[in-house]
Amino acid sequence: MLQKSLKKPAAHFFVRFYHDRKLSGLKPEAGNCIYADDPDNISGIKYNIIRNPVAALCNSGFFEYDPENQVFSFANDIYDGLTLDEIDEIGSRFLTDYIFRIV
Question: pTM above the 0.85 mark?
Fold first, then answer.
Protein backbone atom coordinates (compact mmCIF):
# COMPACT_ATOMS: atom_id res chain seq x y z
CA MET A 1 0.00 0.00 0.00
CA LEU A 2 0.99 3.58 -0.46
CA GLN A 3 2.73 5.05 2.51
CA LYS A 4 0.97 7.93 4.25
CA SER A 5 3.73 10.26 3.10
CA LEU A 6 2.93 9.46 -0.55
CA LYS A 7 -0.87 9.69 -0.32
CA LYS A 8 -0.94 13.33 0.80
CA PRO A 9 1.03 14.72 -2.18
CA ALA A 10 -0.90 12.41 -4.51
CA ALA A 11 -4.22 13.71 -3.17
CA HIS A 12 -3.14 17.30 -3.71
CA PHE A 13 -1.92 16.42 -7.20
CA PHE A 14 -5.39 15.09 -8.11
CA VAL A 15 -7.07 18.22 -6.74
CA ARG A 16 -4.74 20.47 -8.77
CA PHE A 17 -5.07 18.33 -11.91
CA TYR A 18 -8.87 18.42 -11.95
CA HIS A 19 -8.98 22.08 -10.92
CA ASP A 20 -6.69 22.94 -13.86
CA ARG A 21 -8.95 20.96 -16.23
CA LYS A 22 -11.96 22.96 -15.03
CA LEU A 23 -10.08 26.26 -15.51
CA SER A 24 -9.16 25.17 -19.04
CA GLY A 25 -12.84 24.62 -19.84
CA LEU A 26 -12.51 20.83 -19.91
CA LYS A 27 -14.88 18.45 -18.17
CA PRO A 28 -12.99 17.13 -15.11
CA GLU A 29 -14.11 13.52 -15.61
CA ALA A 30 -17.09 11.54 -16.85
CA GLY A 31 -19.56 10.86 -14.05
CA ASN A 32 -19.03 11.78 -10.44
CA CYS A 33 -15.53 12.83 -9.51
CA ILE A 34 -14.62 13.44 -5.88
CA TYR A 35 -11.41 15.14 -6.98
CA ALA A 36 -13.31 17.83 -8.88
CA ASP A 37 -16.65 17.90 -7.06
CA ASP A 38 -15.37 17.97 -3.48
CA PRO A 39 -11.72 19.09 -3.61
CA ASP A 40 -11.64 19.91 0.10
CA ASN A 41 -12.32 16.27 1.01
CA ILE A 42 -8.64 15.29 1.12
CA SER A 43 -9.30 12.23 3.33
CA GLY A 44 -11.88 10.96 0.81
CA ILE A 45 -9.46 11.58 -2.04
CA LYS A 46 -6.68 9.68 -0.23
CA TYR A 47 -9.08 6.79 0.31
CA ASN A 48 -10.00 6.73 -3.40
CA ILE A 49 -6.35 6.73 -4.47
CA ILE A 50 -6.11 3.26 -2.92
CA ARG A 51 -9.69 2.02 -3.42
CA ASN A 52 -10.23 2.81 -7.09
CA PRO A 53 -7.35 0.79 -8.60
CA VAL A 54 -8.00 -2.12 -6.21
CA ALA A 55 -11.72 -2.11 -7.07
CA ALA A 56 -10.97 -2.02 -10.81
CA LEU A 57 -8.59 -4.96 -10.52
CA CYS A 58 -11.06 -6.94 -8.37
CA ASN A 59 -13.84 -6.27 -10.89
CA SER A 60 -11.70 -7.93 -13.57
CA GLY A 61 -12.30 -11.30 -11.92
CA PHE A 62 -8.58 -12.03 -11.69
CA PHE A 63 -8.02 -10.46 -8.26
CA GLU A 64 -9.62 -10.32 -4.84
CA TYR A 65 -9.25 -8.18 -1.75
CA ASP A 66 -9.76 -9.26 1.84
CA PRO A 67 -10.48 -6.01 3.72
CA GLU A 68 -10.38 -7.67 7.13
CA ASN A 69 -6.77 -8.77 6.64
CA GLN A 70 -5.95 -6.05 4.09
CA VAL A 71 -4.67 -8.64 1.61
CA PHE A 72 -4.85 -8.09 -2.14
CA SER A 73 -4.18 -11.18 -4.25
CA PHE A 74 -5.01 -13.16 -7.35
CA ALA A 75 -8.30 -15.02 -7.13
CA ASN A 76 -7.52 -18.56 -5.95
CA ASP A 77 -9.00 -20.27 -8.99
CA ILE A 78 -6.88 -18.06 -11.29
CA TYR A 79 -3.67 -18.26 -9.28
CA ASP A 80 -3.59 -22.05 -9.10
CA GLY A 81 -3.18 -22.42 -12.87
CA LEU A 82 -0.62 -19.68 -13.59
CA THR A 83 3.16 -19.46 -13.73
CA LEU A 84 4.96 -16.56 -12.03
CA ASP A 85 5.68 -15.00 -15.44
CA GLU A 86 1.98 -15.13 -16.35
CA ILE A 87 1.05 -13.61 -12.99
CA ASP A 88 3.52 -10.76 -13.56
CA GLU A 89 2.20 -10.15 -17.09
CA ILE A 90 -1.46 -10.07 -16.02
CA GLY A 91 -0.81 -7.77 -13.07
CA SER A 92 1.26 -5.38 -15.16
CA ARG A 93 -1.24 -5.35 -18.02
CA PHE A 94 -4.28 -4.65 -15.81
CA LEU A 95 -2.53 -1.92 -13.84
CA THR A 96 -1.17 -0.29 -17.00
CA ASP A 97 -4.58 -0.44 -18.69
CA TYR A 98 -6.24 1.06 -15.62
CA ILE A 99 -3.75 3.93 -15.39
CA PHE A 100 -4.10 4.76 -19.10
CA ARG A 101 -7.90 4.86 -18.79
CA ILE A 102 -7.78 7.46 -16.00
CA VAL A 103 -5.10 9.69 -17.49
Answer: no
